[in-house]
Please model this.
Amino acid sequence: MLKNKLNILFLIPGFFYIEEYQRKLYHNDIPLGTLQISSYLKQRGPFKTDIIDLRVESEKEEKLSGNDISPQEFERTFLRIMENNNVQEQDVIGVNCYTSFQYLQTGLIGEIIKKHFPNVIMVVGGYHPSAVPEDFANENSPFDHVIQGEAELPMERILNRLLNKDLSLPREKNTTIITSRELIDVNTLPFPDLELYLTRYPYKNKFKFDLFYSRGCPFQCAFCAENYEFRSYFFKKFKEYFQNLHGIVEEYNPKLLKIAFSDQSFDKIAIRDKILDYILQNELQDRFFFSCQCRVETIGKNLSLLKKFRKCNMIIGFGFESAHEALLKEMHKTEHPREYIRMMEKILKEYKDESGIHCRLNLLCGFPGENRDTFKKTLNFVEQHALHENIQLSPTLFSNYPNVHVYQNMAYYEQKFGTKFIREWWKIKSNPLKNSVPEKPSKNYSKKELISNYKDSYAPLLTLFPKLPKWSLIIWKKFYDKWLREL
Model:
């Protein structure tokens, strides 16, 4: 049976073994990458797309997540959702395993689909398949294709080949195809298919609205997954995207008119100044507030640029990470750590001296080489320079994702610092966030001591930021208290 149109269903996996704190972190992001693929495919061929987000579905169906996972109950619930959404009509199912935290559920839903619908073509992509494609290409893999890197071009080719092929024929065994990486011209991309998602999940004030005006990153920090070639949009493309987004945010997020520029380094985008001017000229800062990520070095060398960002009602997240000079070098943050730290001090002073929009200070704890002294050095910096109502502290723990420099060079950190890693931690049937943190950041500094220092040091400091909801700190403390009891 030859077809002149293909039906594609995108699946967003949920998370097994996660807890309330993590649900608050991971359940309100719109799967923008998948929606970008959807709009691109619709533009390029006779392709009809649909989407099911198992993170959202799990909030209604407790059998889809939690710590006590029953594969049989999961299968029954999952199949009911799929059948209610006409899975029988789908020719291709694409699964976005965005993070390694979704690995276990991705594998299970692949097995269930191939068991009950053996003729459907299964494609998996995302950060984890890009980093460890062999996890999805073993002898008994249910997946026909594993896409490494950006998915638009390879997905289009896969679908075009299928249009000229008899889809009723079952695939041969052991024929999982791993695509090679390739980059798309970002200025050929249409506006992401937000309507597809919000038609299915039309929940007011639930989701965060992000847009990217670049891909990749011009920097190569050792802990970051965005370690591929940097490209940014033309200003004409930005205006088209931005104008489309205004009405959507106002309709679906009337209580929180916020737009996040989620580029890894917004200040390095070629059209940065044009975007800021556009916001001011159209007085959008009076209707919305914005957020972005910026480099310490860029803003530290140009404080007048900081004033422009603040005038735009833009919350800047600064990836400062650490005040320890040697650790900053190990993170590949800077080759000039003293100047880097001085620039951070200057930026924070600006926020303390002037009223207006706040900033966010990102701090990375537990990176390989972290010890009592490095942790204390950063904490002392925070206490001296960052305790102010205009400065939001955002401490996080280092997770050893398989697509970052650290994971690919674990032997180096083991030899130099005595770091103890858990290899292939995503395959362990327990909380993946906890398993992704190394057992020892350094020889005489254990995970238990790190978590204890992290919780006890930052819990009282987080309360000083007046805009932090009380419930979020309660959930945060509850999570880390429980984790400590487990260690």
About this structure: The domain at 211-486 is CATH 3.80.30.20 (pyruvate-formate lyase- activating enzyme). The two ends are 57 Å apart (CA to CA). The CA atoms of residues 146 and 178 lie 5 Å apart. The first strand starts at residue 6 and ends at 12.
